[in-house]
Amino acid sequence: MLEKQLQKHFNFPQFRSGQKEVVESIMAGKDVVALMPTGGGKSLCFQLPAIISEKVSIVISPLIALMQDQVDALNARGIPAVYINSSLDSDEMDERLWDIKKGKTKIVYIAPERFANRQFQKIFSELDVYLLAVDEAHCVSQWGHDFRPDYLSIKDYIPMLKNRPIVAAFTATATPEVKDDIIERLGLQDPDVYVRGFDRPNLKFFVRENLRKMERAKEALRIAKSIEGSGIVYAITRKETEQLAKFFKEEGIKAAAYHAGMTNERRSRIQNEFMENKFKVIVATIAFGMGVDKADIRFVIHVGMPASPEGYYQEAGRAGRDGEKSFCILLHSKSDASLHNFFIMSGKNEMISQGKSWEDTKKAIDIRYGRLNKMKEYVSHSSCRRKLLLEYFGDPAVKESAENCGGCDVCMDFKWAKYSDGEEEGGKVKTKSKPRKSKAKESMTIMETVKLYQQKYSAEKIAKARSLGISTIYNHLTQWYAEGGELEIENLVSKEQEKIISEAMDKKHGFQKLKEIKERVGDGISYEQIRLIWAKKKRGA
């Protein structure tokens, strides 16, 4: 029954690891705590029960960008969902609240600070809410890495509702201390607790130790150039993001820096352009990521060791959310630990100045040092890195995991090349497998796009539903068409555009140089449309 609903609403033939158990608990009326990694499919675990239910459900999220992306994706699939946050003007707010009151909306995304609004409280106190899903639930815990005081009001808000709903808390990062805090501070009642999905076989993990600053920059550049598709490069400081982005651009890679020191408008523009594949690389601090719902990120490179396995796995897990092979590469320097020690001691002084007790301060500092030490162990580990992470997060899948995962540098016996006189000698991450006869037909992510196309979704609607850039959707359909799929070209490229493209190709005596053809056709025609006509000519259509 659940598989039929999954297929009906999301076009997925089966659940990912760990999803079905969480959905079943919610459907049985149980409170839930689900610890699932970034890219593990948390959203579906609360969206599917909400869709099946006849009542309204509320999703609490601290991230405006993520709310908007998930609501757009649900709407594209024909599911009535809205978000309520500070980005709306008063008329938009009133219209959405009216629709919610009249039962026209299935899922409502809200920011936690909205609970302080009296108008909001009055409307929702009259609703029969089925499910209250708390996303990024670690924000409720003082031991979490992203504590937010507004989350503390959620427990007080629940009794205001007409009937107590099912309460489900979701997070990608939680130690035992944080998990216990989530249960207490949200007032969960005998919850089912799941730690699932941390093993993501499509992700390949590599670490390179003890690089000097310039060596690290060159290595990040070389890796980014060697992997097809877009990626994120994480740096520890804002200054370093700017320096690396400049270095990448000077070396011919389309890149942009992203950090909290930029205006909201600029960050939003960069994020949107990255979604549309206008940049190959975003060089960012940890300010970038939460709320980024781009499924086809092919690599995440850390230029600097993160402070904890939680932070690392959350950031690295933004790669390969479409299930395709992707790379998580950590480039380490001896100075990384010293920098984190400085941050920890600064945090200690700040806690003391804010009046925290010595006992609470010491507990927080001990937790941070424990996480940092585990991160050091990951970097220097001489056996399977994947298994170390699964054991750290307590995922039961570790019991069935093989001794050799075949997907980390240790298990693959991968050897990095050495530097000579400051120049890199060519150690390469193997990113491409041998050509296959029908790559499109075998690719899960391409076929998901095709299924939506066959259901008469437009390319724009598919992009929204799948959290992918429109250019990626065009590339999926082009690859499928080139290998024999049936595609109505005229719906994607007009007859006039096709004529212009064909003439540009003919003038070049073939169509080998895409950039030159693009320069001939101008801005009104995209690279993706040129590739479609290219494929059509190859097929002789």
Secondary-structure blueprint:
Blueprint: H1 2-10, H2 19-27, E1 32-35, H3 42-52, E2 56-60, H4 64-76, E3 81-84, H5 90-101, E4 107-110, H6 118-125, E5 129-134, H7 154-157, E6 166-171, H8 176-185, E7 192-195, E8 203-208, H9 213-226, E9 230-235, H10 238-250, E10 255-258, H11 264-275, E11 281-284, E12 297-303, H12 309-316, E13 326-331, H13 335-353, H14 358-380, H15 385-393, E14 419-420, E15 423-424, H16 439-442, H17 444-454, H18 459-466, H19 470-482, H20 495-507, H21 514-521, H22 527-539
Parallel strand pairs: 1-6, 1-7, 2-4, 2-5, 3-4, 5-6, 8-13, 9-11, 9-12, 10-11, 12-13
Antiparallel strand pairs: 14-15
Helix pairs in contact: 2-3, 4-18, 13-14, 17-19, 18-19, 19-22, 20-21
Structural notes for this entry:
The protein has 541 residues and is an alpha/beta fold. The protein has 3 domains: 2-195, Rossmann fold, CATH 3.40.50; 203-424, 3-Layer(aba) Sandwich (Rossmann fold); 439-539. Helices cover 45% and strands 13% of the residues. It has 22 helices and 15 strands. It has helices spanning 2-10, 19-27, 42-52, 64-76, 90-101, 118-125, 154-157, 176-185, 213-226, 238-250, 264-275, 309-316, 335-353, 358-380, 385-393, 439-442, 444-454, 459-466, 470-482, 495-507, 514-521, 527-539; strands spanning 32-35, 56-60, 81-84, 107-110, 129-134, 166-171, 192-195, 203-208, 230-235, 255-258, 281-284, 297-303, 326-331, 419-420, 423-424. It has a 7-stranded parallel sheet, with helices on both faces. Strand 3, helix 5 (90-101) and strand 4 form a beta-alpha-beta unit. The protein is globular and about 75 Å long.
